[in-house]
Amino acid sequence: MFFRQVIGHHDIKAKLIRSAEEDRISHAQLFLGKEGSGALPLALAYACYLSCTGERNGDACGTCPSCIKYQKLVHPDLHLVFPVIKPEGGKRAVSDMFVHQWREAVIANPYLELSQWYETINAENKQGSIFVDESDEIVRKLSLKTYESAYKIVIVWMAEKMNVQAANKLLKILEEPNPGTVFLLVSASTGTMLPTILSRLQVVKLPPIGQRDLQEALMARHGLDEEKAGSIARMSDGNYLRALELMQTETLSWELDKFAEFMRLCYKADFPSILGWVEELDRTGREKQKEFLLYCVRMIRENLMLNLEATQLSRLTEEEKNFSVKFSRFIHTGNAGEIAAEFDKAMYHIESNAYGKLVLLDLAIQTARLIKKEK
Predict the structure, then answer these.
(1) pLDDT value for 249
(2) Mean pLDDT of the chain
(3) In sequence order, what are the beta bridge partners of 365?
(4) Calpha distance 347→302 (Å, rounded)
(5) What is the pLDDT of residues 263-291, one digit of tens each?
(6) Using CA atoms, how far apart are residues 330 and 373, in angstroms rounded to an integer?
(7) What is the pLDDT of residue 27?
(8) Taking Cα atoms as reference points, which of 351, 355, 369, 367 lies closest to residue 129?
(9) Cα–Cα distance, 88 to 287 (Å, whole number)
(10) Residues forming beta bridges with residue 204, ordered by sequence position
(11) Which one-letter DSSP state was computed for residue 206?
(12) What is the residue extent of each domain of the chain?
């Protein structure tokens, strides 16, 4: 991955390049950005730039042996860490056991999201994690000399999935790394990360991708005309993955259908039918459920904007707009915040391995109460 392949974030790229040229490279950095913002591509591009042995002119050269290996993610001084699942009957689970699948997935789509990765390794309802064995493996690898590069670089993708034991084992090496060691942690959220880990990291915060940058990327990479690319970029709210979904609307249609059905059932307080809805959603798996709940929060926000007649802020597709024209009158300043908070709470509980059916049923009960609340 090269800086020129990362969509937007021009100021951040410039700062990273400047830090390398001035030899002010922090040994432990956190690339913090929501999925679809490009945190992983940026970390990969930075690692490639640091290891490049050719002529760097605002980006890695792309032709030296190091760059060629980086494009295949096989550089011997690049160590990759990511959430994995424990195999059936296995006690040990480390990234090296899945590294071939991860390389293929990231090369195919550097903007890879967690749910896509879990589908690749057939996680189903299992929650992936970065286990304590991974920390032992990192320490072992970093005790060896570098092979080719001036740096040994460790990229930890979805660092928030590191369990407590793994995180505690990394504290010392994060604070006092071996010379030439660079940790690049990538995270969508710091909510579950240990404060002791965070205190050792220099944070690089990524905002959503700029609308114009995203529009130009959609035109260049996917052949969209200016008007179509502009429309998708506006609705995507700086999320490249959502832009890809909008180009292939099957997933969004499913989410809209489930959202509309849920809200109608809650308004009617039709709990026998709600139980059927809960059963069906529960079978989709935790990652799919979290994606759906996140979609619901967005729809609550969009419908509040419609209710307030702030249509210039709307990012709805035509299909979503057709539904929301009538539905938005039920989402107002008196209940929107509370409803969104219930969906956020459900997401947190699902991610914490709570019993999914119970979480979704409680969400329905609370939504049925709030949907009829007056302003």
Answers:
(1) 63
(2) 90
(3) none
(4) 19
(5) 999 999 999 999 999 999 988 888 788 88
(6) 8
(7) 92
(8) 351
(9) 20
(10) 31
(11) P
(12) 3-205, 210-248, 249-370
